[in-house]
Design goal:
single chain; alpha/beta; 2,3-Dihydroxybiphenyl 1,2-Dioxygenase, domain 1; 5 helices; 32% helix; globular; Bleomycin-R; Bleomycin resistance protein; VOC_core; Glyas_Bleomycin-R_OHBP_Dase; antibiotic resistance
């Protein structure tokens, strides 16, 4: 969770997704669900915490604080997604959310500071997205992935003008380009 605005946007997205599925959800109920997803007892507690952490950009002397973007990738099979992201790439599942037993999954994964969201919800993202991820240790990542002998992906390292890149493509045609930048010579 990055800001008060992000939490309200999540609640709005939740209401829209529920409405598209034929379920009406009040704004306050959506806010309460979002607060519980992040481990808080109520929206008031989450809002107070977020307000305390959010920079006040209209106060002299404060600065804008932009956090890293979180890519949202559309998936069509939880089993295949977990096989790829968790088992092959080594991401950890931070949390999962479904509105009920027979509802689509929305989840957060992380690895070494990178956060990624996967969604089965039709309106969240389009398959075939691409995320560019600056990193260090691309050769070590390549060796780690190669050692797993994953039958559906055998990534290589490509040398480009700005660094070394390792591109992986998930079962839904979403791509992650891991790039170790090479410093320019003076």
């Amino acid at each position: 969770m990055r800001s008060f605005h992000d939490a309200k946007l999540m609640a709005k997205t939740l209401r829209q997704a529920m409405s598209e599925s034929g379920f009406e959800l009040s704004h306050s109920a959506a806010l309460e669900i979002v607060s519980r997803q992040f481990g808080f007892d109520s929206w008031n507690v989450l809002a107070a915490r977020l307000n305390a952490e959010t920079p006040k950009n209209n106060v002299p002397g404060t600065t804008v604080s932009i956090q890293p973007a979180i890519p949202v990738f559309r998936i069509f099979s939880v089993e295949k997604a977990m096989e790829f992201y968790r088992d092959f790439l080594g991401f950890k599942v931070e949390w999962e959310h479904r509105f009920g037993d027979s509802f689509p999954l929305y989840c957060e994964l992380s690895r070494s500071g990178m956060i990624l969201h996967l969604s089965e919800h039709a309106g969240d993202a389009s398959p075939g997205a691409r995320a560019f991820v600056p990193m260090r240790g691309v050769r070590d990542l390549h060796r780690e992935l190669t050692d797993k002998e994953y039958r559906y992906m055998k990534p290589g390292i490509e040398e480009v003008a700005w660094g070394l890149q390792l591109t992986v493509t998930d079962p839904f045609n979403n791509r992650i380009v891991f790039c170790e930048r090479i410093p320019k010579e003076a």
